[in-house]
Amino acid sequence: MKIMFIGATHEVTGSCYYLEAAGRKFLVDYGMEQGPDYYENKDLPIAPGDLDFVLLTHAHMDHSGNLPALYAKGYQGPIYATEATCNLCDIMLRDSAHIQMFEAEWRNRKGRREGKPEFIPAYTMEDAMGVLRNFVRCPYDKIIKPAEGIEVRFVDAGHLLGSSSIEVWMTEDDKTEKIVFSGDIGNVNQPLIKDPVYIKEADYVVMESTYGDRSHGERPDYPVMLAEIIQRTFDRGGSLVIPSFAVGRTQEMLYFIRQIKEQGLIHGHDGFTVYVDSPLANEATTIFSENAYTCYDEEAMDLLKKGINPLFFQGLKTSVTTDDSRAINFDADCKVIISASGMCDAGRIKHHLKHNLWNPKNTVLFVGYQAIGTPGRALLEGATEMKLFGETVQVAAEICKMPGISGHADVNGLLDWARAFDNKPKHVFVTHGDDTVTEVFAQRLKEDLGYDATAPFSGTEYDLLENKCIHEAPGIRIVKATASPKASRAARAYEKLLAMGRRLMTVIRKNEGCPNKDLDRFARDIQSLCDKWDRDDI
Q1: Per-residue pLDDT averaged across 418-426, rounded?
Q2: Which residues contact 515 (CB under 8 A, 6 or more apart)?
Q3: CA–CA dist 244, 338 (Å, integer)
Q4: Separation CA 241–CA 341 (nearest Å)
């Protein structure tokens, strides 16, 4: 009975744990690495086809994003997850597959001219569709038995719709050990979804530490704060543009705006329009509504019992087609535009920035983390101009942010979750945090709670029957060549182009079922663009 740590060790993303127990081999999560990658990850110790099953904590790509790749390499077994996680993965993994295929197509087009071997994408749409057929929907709080000698229960982690901590009981030779995987632990008092469930018993704990070294600070009154921003923007005759992540954050913004309208917090602009211009966000909002009765918190459920949809209000308009999106910028009235992507590095939000950044009457409001190097980060740091679709746009709009919004528990929330155990676990493994953060939080668990806690590196193995480390792997840092400034600029320009290509694939999918004459016109537009840029001199 053992666990091997594969991903999200001394790093925030790439969650993956390999376990052997009761004669079975299985994974908990199989996520993508996103953002900076500092340490090498060990490969799975067995062929994917030899795995018996997978347990999935939630739908975010850094936990689920590599599941189609696992399928592509031969895995045909079940993937156990909550109902809402299955629903969100259905849209998110298909979207990810389109991205993989588009990037491979571009690389191969360029590589053929350079005589390079064919680039194979991590997975295809067929792989995504194949793995999605193997998802097994599990209710919260009910024990399931994926194999003889192994029992599993999903409990609400309060991080994302359908997110879970996973309790696993493993029995060998009449001895049972319980290991708990925290998943991503949610922030308390988030809109819509429930607070994280505290688990009372565990022999071992694998625990995240994303915010293990800092606090979110005092929680603002978000509806009041948002209302103040809308009010002053509308009073000067402008519109509010909100770059927002499609799954989770967009739904929170809708929840706040419904409250604002219900409470009459905006004066002199009754019935203002709110546009959600993101097909993925619109699909995700539908999934939120479909899973309300199993995932919503008490406040949201009280609204439903009164016949009120907490994500709908008068003046809400959803944009699906590109024509819908373009039409928003010809609406001269004061309005709110919520659009993806959340960091302004791709998607329809860039069109809205082009039409709104130059006007001092308007406001751009950031409601999520902006990574270094993204356009969103540049705007927050005071950029005076921005290049959008080959045109330099002056930044005259008000730029502001709503602080403290996070789907993750801060250090105090993490400690509250950890201290809920009635008895001290035998060992706590701290993962899913930036390099030193994992060490810092492991030390907090030792000092504050008296827990035996460590922060393993990838490849570390631990015997869960004997409570001892079998192999303590060292952290192997990834050494990357330093690129020249010119190469870095070229890489950023190419990444922007790739982002637009991914957006084009999304738009194409959304136009399925449109009238033939519209599809023919769309095809001609794309053909014209391809003819212009498919040159021999590039």
Answers
A1: 98
A2: none
A3: 6
A4: 12
Angle between helices 485-510 and 83-113 (to 10 degrees): 120
CB 178: neighbour CB atoms within 10 A?
A: 17
- The token duo for 510 is 């959304």
Please list, in sequence order, all residues whose beta carbon lies within 8 angstroms of the beta carbon of residue 366, skipping any fewer than 6 positions away: 242, 243, 376, 379, 380, 399, 400, 401, 402
**pLDDT tens digits, residue range 206-262?**
999 999 999 988 889 999 999 999 999 999 999 999 999 889 999 999 999 999 999
Reading the block at residue 273, the tokens are 């329009």
Partners of 240 in the beta sheet?
A: 336, 363
The per-residue pLDDT for range 447-494, each reduced to its tens digit, is 999 999 999 999 999 999 999 999 999 999 887 654 455 555 565 566
Q: Judge whether 65 and 29 are in contact, CB under 8 Å.
A: no
Tokens 């400690």 belong to residue:
415
**pTM score of the predicted model:** 0.82
* Listed residue (488, 420, 474) closest to 198, CA to CA: 420
* Distant-in-sequence, close-in-space partners of 506: CB < 8 Å, separation ≥ 6: 95, 98, 279, 280
538 pLDDT more than 80: no
> Which tokens go with 1?
């009975």
Highest-scoring range by mean pLDDT, 7-11, 344-348, 367-371:
7-11
Q: Is pLDDT above 90 for 344?
A: no
Beta carbons of 178 and 201 less than 8 angstroms apart: yes
Going through 162-305 in order, the beta strands assigned E by DSSP cover 164-172, 175-181, 204-208, 240-243, 273-277
Query: What is d(CA 354, CA 97) in angstroms, rounded to the nearest whole number?
Result: 29
pLDDT 10s digits, 491-521: 556 655 665 676 677 678 778 778 888 888 8
Cα separation of 12 and 415, whole Å? 18
**Among candidate residues 3, 73, 14, the one with its CA nearest the CA of residue 39:** 14
Sequence-ordered list of residues with C-beta below 8 angstroms from that of 416, at least 6 positions apart, any chain: 198, 409
Q: Which residue has the tokens 């959008």?
A: 388
Q: Is residue 405's pLDDT more than 60?
A: yes
Of 267, 268, 241, the C-alpha closest to 363 is 241
SS3 at position 334: coil
Sequential DSSP letters for 145-187? EEETTEEEEEEE-SSSTT-EEEEEEEEETTEEEEEEE--SPBP
* pLDDT value for 50: 97
What's the chain's length in residues?
538
Band (pLDDT 50/70/90 cuts) for residue 106 is confident
**Which of 100, 165, 156, 88 has its CA nearest to residue 126?**
100
The two tokens of residue 239 are: 């519109």
Amino acid at 368: G
Distance CA 508, CA 523 (A): 9
3-state secondary structure of 363: strand
pLDDT tens for each residue of 349-370: 999 999 999 999 999 999 987 7
DSSP 117: P
Neighbour tally for 106: CB within 10 Å: 15
